[in-house]
Amino acid sequence: MEVLANNLQVLFQGLALGSIYALVALGFVLIIRATNVVNFAQGDFAMLGGYAMVLFLVGMPGNPELHLPGFEMHLPYWLAIVLAAGVMAIIGVAFNYGVYYPLRNRPFLPVLISTLGASIFLQNTILALFNPQPRPLDKLINIDGVTIGGVFLDSQYLVILVFTILAVAFQYFFFEHTLIGKKLQATSQDKDMARLLGIPVTWMIIITFVYSSVLGGMAGILVAPILFVSIGMGSTIALKAFAATIIGGFGDVAGAIVGGIIIGVIESFAAYYISVPYKDAYAFLALFLVLLFRPQGIFGEKVSEKA
Amino acid sequence: MGRSLYGLIAASIATVTLSLPAAAADTIKIGLVNEASGANAEAGTYTANGARLALDEINKAGGVLGKQVELRLEDNQSTNPGTVLAFSKLVSEGELAGIIGPIRSTQIQAASPTIAKAGIPTMIGGTDPSLTHVNNRWVFRCRPNDSFSSLVISDFGVNTLKLRKWAIVHSTDAFGSGGKDALVSALSKLGVTPVLVQGYTNNSQDFTPIVLAIKKSGADIIGTYMTNSPDVGIFAKQLRQLGISAQWVGSPSVVTDTAMKLAGTALSGVYGIADFTPGASAEAKSYAEKYKTRYKTDADVYSSWAYDAMHIMALAINNAKSTKPDDVRKAILDIRGYKGVEGTYAFDENGDGLRGYNVVKNEDGKIAFIKHIDFSEKK
Predict the structure, then answer these.
(1) A48 touches A91 (CB < 8 A)
(2) For residue A84, is it within any domain?
(3) I need a surface site. Which of A134, A177, B116, B294 has the fewest CB within 10 A?
(4) E strands within B143-252?
(5) Is-contact A241 A262, C-beta < 8 A?
(6) What is the CATH number for A268?
(7) DSSP 8-state class, residue B269
(8) Contact predicate B224/B250, CB 8 Å
């Protein structure tokens, strides 16, 4: 009985962390599909989401060296989430115009470096505005969790699982059953053709950046009560999420979700049964094996370079 | 044309930069290799604050050898390569009377050869015992080392709390592994073999497997050597969530200000050892007040040792009446009975200044001083 409970506990933690990887991976994939570029700042969207919550729920400490006065703000939790999503949307637009748009006609490498630069810039901006101390964040639901049959279900992890399911359902509906979703799909498949058909490609790409920035921000907000809000919180998650996109199939939406959850669960079980210190290695071992035996990923189609 | 213009600009910038140090030649310079960015930047802020507080006191009191003291900060990006670079950079700028190094054992280990080569007295806060036992005569420790921390943890757990089923949880970095080895050997001297020894890498996101292993082992006391505050916070919460009520005696990281803020009630009732406790002595109390007034936040160990290091460096230079490295080194080793905020300093031939710890308890988010355990007489 206890063995079963322990295994379920490990499974639950794996699923929950995997969902976070999946959410960030989803953001990766959307941008890959729209622009053919891996956005190295995707993890920092999660970090920004966390700090936006700190801003609205607690305030900003200020920075005497930059002559920035600190201030306090104590908004209700729901309003803070709405405002944080708004901030993430604005960041998405700014990211599009500041990081991607000026380089849109260049090969993918300059854009990639540009997102890497944005990542460093964002982390250091936050370091200057909020001091480097990690901060706690309240949970969405004000109870710690429930214990069912010896398995402790953290309320925040339950929220994460529910949100992931909703986000995936929304995304499916949005892309498959709305006109704008279909336009986004067309844009990601062939920009020139989409343009010929009268689809405003520039707008579609802005929408993609906004969407994936908000999604990344939400992942950060959801995970912050457990992993705390810190400058580096996005980096570890992004690395695993990136592995998830490759395992799932580079640029495949379903693949990103499945890949994220696979990594979360593998990590969790391998840590429990084999060894904790090498936990991070298992995710990348899985990545390595997939690259060896199924380089296109689980859901990826085997395609040669487009002519 | 364009290129020669750039050359001209570059040359003039170089000239300006090179001529700067000359203007500030009549100060005594002390370097500080610190974590200003990267994973541990939060701790680095405290360290710089502590050193600056001491610096201002020294300068206000007339400086050292009649000169004002100047602090040269160098960021090590919280990494080992960054630390080596930072030391090389400080040393290459020259004229340093002393250096205050980092608090992380692993970083000091990496930079040790650079320190030895530079031959400049360097104060360190890393507590891995081996750091002062590698034939590097330029390293001086302003905190008690882990051979004492493990003696205190095991002594308190076995003799005061009377618990003998130990689980040890440790980070796999140099600090955590060194601490684990010392704790295992200290426990074995008390006739105790731990029922579980479990490592983890820093910045782990989930401690469930470790918590389940502790549960399975039936341990009634947990001894920890954890490096980062977020790890302490996550572990503490999951430990309590999964219903483990074993006692916990940890290395200083469990009673830092940041860890307590992050973990909230999950760290209530936890014992930690601390080299710095505001309630432990008059010096510590007055330092805590000064720090709070100036920085609007509570002082913790990351700041207090740097404060002591700065004062000891100044005291040694004053006593030596010289900034020659050999004279300063001798003066540091001659220090006996200097009352710092971390305790009473007496440096031994290895460069270890302190040999005792305070045991403290987190009582609903407030640190309560329990007892001071000192091994000085057993030296």
Answers:
(1) yes
(2) yes
(3) A177
(4) 166-171, 196-200, 221-225, 247-250
(5) no
(6) 1.10.3470
(7) T
(8) yes
What's the rounded Cα separation, in Å, for the pair A299 and A190? 20
- List pLDDT tens digits, range B16-75: 444 444 444 589 999 999 999 887 787 899 999 999 999 999 999 999 999 999 999 999
Q: How far apart are CA A190 and CA B214, in angstroms?
A: 55
A268: nearest CA in chain B? B209
The one-letter code for the residue type at B276 is: F
Total of domains in chain A: 1
CB contact under 8 A, B200 and A276: yes
CB contact under 8 A, B41 and A127: yes
A307 lies in some domain: no
CB contact under 8 A, B199 and A277: yes
Answer whether B206 touches A (CB < 8 Å): yes
Instruction: Compare CB distances from B45 to A132, A154, A279 and report the shortest one's residue.
Output: A132
Of A13, A17, A133, the CB nearest to B42: A133
Residue A157 located in a structural domain: yes
For A5, which residue in chain B has the nearest alpha carbon?
A: B212
Q: Does B177 touch chain A (CB under 8 A)?
A: no
Does the pLDDT at position A27 exceed 80? yes
DSSP state of A101: G
Bridge partners (DSSP) listed for residue B139: B122
Residue A32 lies in domain: 2-293
- E-state strands within B43-178: 69-75, 96-100, 122-124, 139-141, 166-171
CA A211 to chain centre: 11
Taking an 8 Å cut-off on Cβ atoms, the answer to whether B262 and A136 are in contact is yes
> β-pairing, B166-171 with B344-346?
unpaired
Residue A213 domain-assigned?
yes
- Which stretches of chain B drop beneath a pLDDT of 50? 1-3, 14-24, 378-379
A17 to B208: CB separation less than 8 angstroms, yes or no: no
Selected residues 250-309 of chain B with any CB under 8 Å from a CB in chain A: 258, 261-262, 264
Residue of B nearest to A137 (CA): B262
Residue of B nearest to A271 (CA): B209
pLDDT class of A1 with cuts at 50, 70, 90:
low
